[in-house]
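Support request from a user on the community tier.

User writes: "When I paste my structure tokens into the form, the page sometimes reloads and wipes my input. The last time it worked, I copied everything first. Here is what I submitted, just in case something in the input itself triggers the reload:"
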């Protein structure tokens, strides 16, 4: 089972452009180069994190509960980033989310 810090850490690594993390990210998503923004649906994020941490499936609902109870946007905002909804859907699991840089005025 992943704790909130394990969910937050990959986003921070993406923001810092950590090369080891980005190699794993690009391999999982079959990308040649890392994108500027990380777009995801919750199920895909869950699958990626299981892959990244080499963990067995512990239940999507448990993951979602941990994610929604985590201070993820607080930690990301300290780095100048936020996760927002890029494309809303009828159910939270179907929303397309995006990690993006916060534009400073």
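"...and here is what came back when it finally went through:"
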């Amino acid at each position: 089972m992943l704790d909130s810090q394990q969910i937050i850490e990959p986003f921070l690594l993406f923001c810092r452009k950590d090369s080891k993390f980005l190699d794993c990210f690009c391999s999982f998503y079959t990308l040649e180069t890392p994108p500027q923004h990380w777009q995801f649906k919750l199920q895909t994020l869950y699958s990626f994190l299981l892959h990244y941490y080499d963990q067995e499936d512990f239940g999507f609902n448990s993951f979602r509960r941990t994610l929604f109870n985590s201070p993820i946007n607080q930690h990301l905002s300290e780095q100048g980033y936020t996760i927002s909804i890029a494309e809303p859907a009828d159910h939270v699991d179907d929303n397309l989310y995006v990690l993006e840089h916060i534009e400073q005025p």
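Agent notes: The reload is a front-end session timeout and is unrelated to the input. DSSP finds five helices and three strands in the chain. The mean pLDDT is 93. Escalated to web team.
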